[in-house]
Input
Amino acid sequence: MDPVRNPFAPGAGQRPPELAGRDRELSAFEVVLERVARGRPERSLVLTGLRGVGKTVLLGELRSMALRRGWGSGKVEARPDAGLRRPLAAALHRAVRDLAVRHRAPDRVDAVLGVLKAFALRAAEDGAKLRDRWQPGIDVPAARGRADSGDIEIDLVELFTDVAELAADVGTGVALLVDEMQDVRPADVSALCASCHELAQSGAPLVVVGAGLPHLPAVLSASKSYSERLFRYVSVDRLTRAEHHRAVTAPVEREGAGITPDAVAALFEASGGYPYFVQAYSKAAWDAAPTDPITAEDVAVAAPEADGELAVGFFGSRYERATPAEREYLVAMAELTGGRDEAVATAGVADHLGRRPSSLSPARDSLLKKGLVFSAERGRIAFTVPHFGRFLLRA
Output
């Protein structure tokens, strides 16, 4: 099989050749867009799921949907070691530029940009030297007395309100997409929730679409109790057999090639239906197949190569971030589950290692902060990366 024509593309956030199994999520956002267009109140959206299920890809698709509707849109990737003010300013600047091409009142756009600049300039700490102050690249004077108090919750409500009103002027809306939302700092999470609450009450056409790990709802709830009613939560899971069949066969057929049913079944067993793994194993199978069609034997030959690439790029990079004590904890989790994608009791990990639970708390807490595990429910913990336990038992 010609490797140049290989349609499969494993990559972080890279759109697969066939976006299968995500009709429910796309339809949910289509409803949000349509309701906001009709002036009806609508909740913001939060996508949750393990790594490798395609949340980042979905955010990109939702952003494209918003842009096709003439909305302004910007995207943020949260980081645990950075505040949200600066990336939010950059994302909303992009959204305002999207709206500006349709707005007939440049002075109105400049006024909002002035508020946005004032918000952005507060990212610098009080007393910071001029050379250390971030300049947002907005060529208008900063507004005074609007979104510049230094309190992120107050400022974000005011900024969201002004940007949403600008969108309302041209009969559209704004979609702000936040990836890795579980990494947003507590004060910033509180500000996001408060802003969404304010906008929902006023019916302003701005929606936040967040994506994060399965424990993201708990993070939001800990910040604001009303967050459970503020967002519409959508769980993004692995593909079913039928969805996997479409994800694999459709790209192959578009290239004028074939794949046997046994090969499709073998790919499902290898990938578990997780979209990132589907792309990795399918790409390897295409390259390994000497002739058309791709067979189950080709999948068997290709699997070790795909496993090796995943071990280095997907699993290994995460494992390397763990300390020896954290790795011991991870291996214990894998041994308790037999490599399956299941949650384990924290007390069970302590028993397995012959240690007191309190002595393992630092390692567990550090793994939680690094995003390698999440608290599935009180007293239980699970890997954020599918098949990670299987990797650890093979390593």
